Amino acid sequence: MKRTPIIYIILVSLFITALGFSFYFYKQSQQFDRQITRGISAKEDLPRYHFVLIGEEMNHDYWRLVGEGAKEIELKYDVFVEYVGPQRSNPEEQLKLLDIAIKSKVDGIIVQALSDEFTPIINKAVKEGIPILTIDTDASESLRNAYIGTDNYLAGQLAGEALVESMNGQATVGIITGSFTNAHHQLRVKGFKDAVEKVEGIEIVAVEESNITKVEAEEKAYEILNEHDNITAFYGTSSYDGVGIVAAAKSLNKLDSLYVIGFDPLTENIQLLEKGDLDAIVEQQPFEMGYKSIELMLDIINEKSVQDTYHTDASIIRVSNLDLWKSQRMNPHD
Ligand code: BGC
Fold this sequence. Notes:
It is a single chain. The chain folds into 2 domains: 49-150 and 286-313, Response regulator (Rossmann fold, 3-Layer(aba) Sandwich), CATH 3.40.50.2300; 152-263, Response regulator (Rossmann fold), CATH 3.40.50.2300. By secondary structure, it is of the alpha/beta class. The chain has a 6-stranded parallel sheet, sandwiched between helices. A 6-stranded mixed sheet has the order 7-6-8-9-10-12, sandwiched between helices. It contains 11 helices and 12 strands. It is 52% helix and 18% strand. It binds beta-D-glucopyranose. Beta-D-glucopyranose is lined by residues 56-57, 60, 62, 136-137, 178, 184, 212, 238-239, 263-264, 284.
């Protein structure tokens, strides 16, 4: 007689427990659904194209500007620019990053092509259907779609002409180049030589390599100054060569009688120009290179016709046009 209520109690408890479980699993499945939906829409929110930009030195003002140019245009065109590169110049690492970008099958690669070693890897990418732009330094023999950056030969010529003009066609010159093997430095030296060698009063007595470091630029300039007592001018092809040359000449008390022309208006170089330690600087357009490279890559993807080469401006900053240069920098659209 007494067993009936117990059975009822057990049945009711089982029913309530089953109800609890059903409710719990229903809620769980709802949550999974939400997660899946979120995952799908997150994918839809991804930018349309993924480009990789590979620079020479992340820890350098010049390359910071290239990156800023590329990043500025990202949102306008719904692209994601993955900006990568070694901290300090390291061509092997750049090649590795290029290889990784190809294996990741990104939509486009923008790379500084330092030497011939880049050509087969660039060709491999193009053959696999990944468009390639070279930036700052070209690999013109490769299958790359186009180049954007300074005409490095012309920039060297401009430097040579500036030196000839300031020295009234009379100078004994030492050259510090960032690297003997990097294509852009070779062109900057060649352009310079071609511009000065036709002037009778100019003689180049030494060319040394700084390995793109201030310290080596200073060491090499010091050696040159000691070996050639009659040097009256120096030309440096990479951003910090001017700084190294000035330091060496200062330590030997030879700076006052020396004309020095270098590359890139980094803050340190502008300060030396203001003090009269540097005499002239070749300016390039890194921000514009980065910005335009993305537009160009989109044109290639959209099968618009593009030129082989897009040269950005190179010009000379001297003490005489420094104020104008500064005011234009503050109001770039004047
Ligand atoms: C060159 C770049 C280089 C940078 C820093 C610039 O003058 O155009 O190729 O990476 O200096 O060395």
